[in-house]
Design a protein that fits this description.
By secondary structure, this protein is an alpha/beta fold. The chain is built from eight helices and seven strands, in the order ααααβαβαββαβαββ. The protein has a single domain, classed as 3-Layer(aba) Sandwich (Rossmann fold).
Length: 209
Amino acid sequence: MSTKPDLSAAYSLKTAEDSVRLYADWAESYEDDFVAAEDYRMHQHAAAAFAQAGGEGPVLDVGAGTGVCGAALAALGIGPIDATDISSAMLAQAIKKGVYRRAIEADINKPLPATDTPYAGMVSSGTFTTGHVGPDAIDTLLDACRPGALLSLGVNARHFASAGFEAKFQALMQGKITDLTLTEVNIYGPRNTSDHRDDKALIALFRKA
C-alpha cells in the first residue's frame, strides 16, 4: 500500500480481500495509529457490557484485531478467551498479549472452524461496521454458541438500519435470541478530533435462545 492506512481507509472497505490487505499493512502500528491516536473506546464498552451482564468464558473475541478487546475482557476477569480475525497479521499481534487461549484465522461470513465446545459468550467491538461484516454473520456466531450464551456486539449506529441490522435483530427475536438491549455509546473519546469524532455505536447485548 502506497499510503499509510488510516480510519478513512478502514471505513472504505468493501470486501474481505480489502480487509486482509489493509490490516496486513496496519497490524504493527494499528494500536498507535488508531486505538491511541483516535482515542478509540468501543472495545471498552463492549467488554464492560459483557462483564456487567454476567458474561463468562469460554468467550470468542470476534474480529479481535490486535487484541485490545481481549485485553479489556481479561482485565475484567473474563476467560478463557479465543480470538478470531480474517487477518493473520493482526492475530499475530493479538497473540503476543498473552490473553488468548487460541487464535483462529477465519472469515465470519462463513461457518467458523469447529471447536471442542460451543462458546458461552462472544464479544465484538469493531467488526460490524461499514465495509466489514453484514448482519447475516450473526447467524454464524450463534451457530458456534451454546444455548443461553451471551453476546455483546458493537454495531456502527449510522448504518444500523440501512445495512439491515435493525431488521436482522427483529427477525432473530422470533425464537433465536432473547433479552436484546441496544445501548448507544461513543466510538471515540474526547481526544479524537477527526470527522468521525462524534460517531456512535449500538452495543447489542443478547442471549442465544
